[in-house]
Protein 1
Amino acid sequence: MKYTGKVIKYGDNVDTDVIIPARYLNTSDKKELASHCMEDLDKTFRDRVEGGDIMVAGFNFGCGSSREHAPIAIKESGISLVIAKSFARIFYRNSINIGLAIVECPDAAEAIMDGHTVEADLDNGVIYDKTTGESFKTQPFPAFIQKIIENGGLVESIRNGDIK
Amino acid sequence: MSMTMTQKILAAHAGKESVSAGELILVDLDRVLGNDITSPVAIKEFEKIGVKEVYDREKVTMVMDHFAPNKDIKAAVQCKMCRDFCNEKDIVHFYDVGRMGIEHALLPEKGLVVPGDVVIGADSHTCTYGALGAFSTGVGSTDMACGMATGKAWFKVPSAIKFVLTGKLNRFVSGKDVILHIIGKIGVDGALYKSMEFVGEGVSELSVFDRLTICNMAIEAGAKNGIFEVDEKTVEYVKERSDRKIVAYKADEDAEYDEVIEINLSEIKSTVAFPHLPENTKTIDEVGDIVIDQVVIGSCTNGHYKDLEEAASIIKGRRVAKNVRAIIIPATQDIYLKALENGLLKAFVEAGCVVSTPTCGPCLGGYMGILAAGERAVATTNRNFVGRMGEVTSEVYLASPAVAAASAIAGKIADPCEIVKE
């Protein structure tokens, strides 16, 4: 799994209420959810996000509600990968379950700045900041999680008979 | 291999003698829960899996509580989607308007969770049922869909923090103050991925409802679950509601904990979490002058009968301050009825409060009490993130039912002990 994109960066404790405010949860339409993604934190996000962009954030990204609408809105906005210092646990499993690539890497999340261009090779556990030339090591996913991602999500893993 | 309470429940449901922290396991589910916001996404995913029926029509549970009674046409469509699915699959525990309550108050009340159970719910506050000695945790809609289809979920076995409780709570101090105090101490990611296990002689001093409130907000410290040791109070509460067998797990004496934190309940004061994180806590004597526009008493955290009773003991015979809108939301129909029969609702209305049907409504900024720019609310709810109850510049102060009630009377954040003196 390799990703290249321009970075959009946020701070610590980005909660699911700012990723997708509850007032929009009266729908599960992916495009509509994406059209309100991040709007209570960053009104410029919708205009500047481009397909393939990489979101970088601080500690406890995705804390709060269990709404799967949050990773769905991020993915549908075109974000290809989220790098954070740490993730809230429900957001973490939801992202894996819907096939949004995420990776925990405190050093990378600290050093990489908004607007930088980043290449991430998750198979080999390397994040490369093309703007500064700095490289960072990450932990590969456990095999069980890798399998879910390879299948394209949890539903597909069940359909493929990997989870019975 | 020694285990924590949580690990023992997970091992039993994974068909293993023992499990250890970090291990990935597949566990059998005793209940799979969803609400009117998360279930529609889960139903769409369920249909992709290609199975015809849910794994157990007694165990799949849906509660229409977030935007119900339907707040708008889109909410109506979502509730209808859940209703149609539950009718088609012949789901036993489908709770619609008239029978529903806020899910995490409703499930314990209906006896749908017993000690030793494993429960997942597509709602982050599913961790509430740890109060009854169950393992319960919030998941997303895809997990719910797969749980409905297979009766299983994958978990990474958590490590744990042990909270040893001693002493006894003072007047007007409750479970809400205990959990806000803990979150203030360890932070909003202080228990990230971990279990919070509550033990010690202080446990028996806490009502089941205080324990429900404490476990409810375990997620606000990032925890996977919160759990209390089962005691006589738990057994009494559960036996009145369920005939199912109770399995009470205790941690091994030599179980490993990442940290042990001692909490003396008698030292805890009324506590308020300032915007915009539950960890921004101050004790009531440090609050200062915070003038408010709205009070909300309710939610899955604090909409129990005991909470309304405590609020009514302060509000009865007094008047809500002129510039405050006070909204009371009993969490279930049974609580509503009991509050009606015992004169609580009359006391609230006479004081100038409004009383709503059960709904999550304002807690997540859905409806029934949205804040305008710059407005401030004291709420017995669980989150005070940016824009949580309305416009992005509005503010939510999290507090106990007693502090919320006192604040409604004073028109600013107030100490209940001061109000009842007047």
Note: The longest helix of chain B spans residues 73-89.
Protein 2
Amino acid sequence: MFLLLAVATALSAADVYRVAGVIIDSETGSPVANASVALSPGGESRGDMGVITGPDGRFSFDAPRGIFRLSAVVAGHSQVFGEMSPFSDAGIGVVTGPDEDTAHLVFRWFRPAVITGRVLDDQGEPVENARVKLLHYGVADGRTRIGPRNEASTNDRGEYRIWEIPAASYYLIATGRPWYAEAWAVGPGKPQAPVAYRPVYYPGTADVTHAAPLTVHPGEEAHADFAFSAVAAANVTVNCDNNTSVVEALPAAPNGAMTLSVIGQSIGGEAVLSQTAFIICPFTVNGVLPGHYLLRLSDTEAAGPRAAQRWVDVGVGDIEVSLSLHPAAALSGRVTLKNAGAWPNGLLVGLFRDLDNWSETMPIGADGSFSVPHIEPGKYLVSVSGAGYYAETIRAGDVALPRGVVNIEDGAELRLSIVASNKSVRFRGFATRDDQPLGNMLVVIVPRDPVSAYSNQGYQTDSDGSFDWPALPAGDYLLFAVDDPTIAYADPETVKPYLSQAKQIRIEPGKVLEERVPVQAVVK
Amino acid sequence: MVSSDQMRGVWLLLLLTGWCSAQQGEYVLAGSVVNSRTGEPVKRALVTATRQATPEESTNGAAMQPVSASALTDVSGAFRFTGLAAGTYSLWASKPHFDAAQAGAPIDLKKSSREDVRVELSPFGAIEGRIDDQRDEPVSGVSLLVMHADIADGRRRTQLERFVSTDDRGIYRVWDVPPGRYVIEAVGSGATFTYLDEAGPSNGGFLSFVPAYFGGPTTDSATPVVIEPGTEARANIGVLLQPAYKVRGTLTNLGTGEVTFALFSGDEQYGTGRVNFSRASGAFEMLEVVNGSYALLAMQNHEVFAELPIVVHGGDVNGLRMALAGPAEIPVIVRILDQPAVKAIPEGQQQLEPQNLGFCYPALRPSSGGYPIIPGPGDGAIQAPPGRYRFDVSCGNAYVISATLGTTDLLANPGFTVAPGLAQAPIEIVARHGGGIISGAIKLGQVPTGKTMFVLAVPRFSARAPESTQASDDGQFSFESLAPGDYTLYGFSTDQLEYRSPEFLRGLTGGESVHVEDGATAAVTITRLAQ
């Protein structure tokens, strides 16, 4: 794993090492010409050395002793040496030194893939401005996740094209509006019955439970066409029971900050389907498809933050929904430092919300307190960072929150007690097979304390087979290495088969630990 | 999937609700929508019939909004509204990739139905092309500037119409392009990325190309793409990929606001790779610059500027130092000779009639396009950012005798350069109150009129720019406040005249000579169009 960590190494003019090799196509094995290959020293972004490969795909640099990032750009697409899967970490570092063979590197180039297709309406006419969204399905940061990747719009011929995507598995969702939907609403009196397109999921289904990922291989051009069907939709009018103050206050506060979110089922679970900011009640969401939705209203500008949410069933025919604003959910707490002393500067509490990948950090007061006066309900990951600190345990009342995961209910006032520590230790070593260090392996540590707020960590070994965590929390861990860097190491079930042969290690402050860990074969 | 029967249900529902919202009545409004270019029916065009309020309804407030109904045409392009109330209707049709259009005159449904209304929709055009390098390999991520090209104020002008990028196949496409002439340029991206820390990231980008146009290397040599209704044009551009280098330096005198960088070669702006800029240190790094001589321009908030000539030749350029400075202030002195004495206005009285005073104000037109810079009212100076400009002067009730910048005669040589931060020589304009008048008419014998005519008055006594005017519908035209001297008048049936080009003027034939004297009116009749 390449880290932005400058390795302090004594240099002399004589210490020059060759970093050389060939860049080859991962599928065909043939050399890649016209690749812009760059070698950058660790921790520095300037002073790159760059070469353009010829027909033989060869590159060569003379570099001092150290750790380097080797990267290549081919036709605008960049990759880092040692990148096993596009959503693993950023590849591996090239470590130069007297005992390192860095002159025969093989840089496997994964040609990007393309997904393209057409979106037509129910009359076979192309749909312009349809959005096709790509959600990556696979392992990222050790977790199997579904995460947004690229999106594209269709042109006048209904064609979309998403290129330079890493070969992987993707869910695809096509959304759009009939071009005449807005025009239909023109008219006096009662608004006309709206029409809308149902979202269509690959492989051509409007039923989200039948959506399946499309797997593309390096260099492949995959096709995925979509056909929309127009269905009668409904206008949903949201009334706010106790919102008069906002309406009256509006001339003075034109930036009233009421936000309405429509949450519904999408790939991978609930997702925010639409969000409209700066609304004034009553507010109408036009052209809502039949379905089951959570309407969530939040008002952050009121004297005290307020919120409301309600599940609604939308069928054919307009509906009105009343939402009662009440004080919004709030999160507060206190951070206690395990080792008492002067309160360090720059200590932060971090929040990450799964639903929409929202994240925020907030400062911690000198007395250890922090507060978020307004927080949306949902599942959050809580962390502490800054000045070398991390959260050791997080409790809500008497309940420990393993891995720092907390669920916040609508209107709840939650108080957290966090114990933070800076007793972190540098931990390094080598992944070995038959006692020989092996690069490009995955080294994993698993905290043994079941209520630890800390999660499993993975490290893709550098070219010399080394791993190097600059700051790991003190504690008891299980340590193992596996010959596939792409496994979901953060998932307890995935790591289970490797734990019986894992090493038990204790990381203690003041002790620099070095370990050699044998590589296990991946369990498929 | 929804079956076609269900879909018919949806359409019917839409049609009925549209119909219900119009007032109930007995009349039918029907017809068809056709493609103006091919005459073919346009299916699924949206047709909206709007009933205009009668004067009575307007006065008694019964119809605050017009009453309308909408429908989509069927496969034969036909539409039909039934049960409409008596009244006057306007009818609009629209469909993606067609210019929305109204059916001629308002339709009267007071005594009878109308079932023969024809609405013509004119299709937009599209331009598609591929950008290849010298090895015929596609180049992805190239920015394409699609510029509408026409002639305004006697000069060729290009205005950005669309901005697109090539995909991985080197292909770009723009659609819904209105009829006209377009110049297409391929450039690098050139966006500035600001970083708060000392040094932003540096990435690759070792190859780039000199901007290129469809059909030629410069704007003037480019081949315009002519778009008529429904044209599907192709415009491939070849670029010469070559090694590109980095240009690095430090920008000082930073204030607050957005910093952007641009590279010029002559009047042409060069596309570059991204520019990394550190707000903390002022360090900048421009990527993907190919060999050449350039002017490097930096600006903050379009208020302060720095410019530096640079040469890139086979390697990175490092250590540049640029200091931001305010725009150059160019003093402006205007003298009007023979200006009538201004009558003093008695205390407390408003001046109702404007004095017949002569006035002149200069305008600096940036060569790179954009709005002209003119002094504000009462200003004795122009605030001009560094760059190249063309001088222009407009006068009323007066004619220009001379305009100079130092020793340069701006009437004969209107182009000049403004350097940042330097003291500038003043622009001096001398004009004389009054001037001569030409009053004339175009009478073209058999040639059918009904077309708008334009007239050029080309001075024969100096190299100053011609004057142009548009004739009225009956062919009458006039020029006022002309400098005395001999002129040749030319008549045209278009205003797309490049009359500020000496080549254009040299090639003109078929003019009428006229002599203009100060304070006098010269009469002229144009009986033929100029060639």
Note: Chain A is about 5% helix and 50% strand.
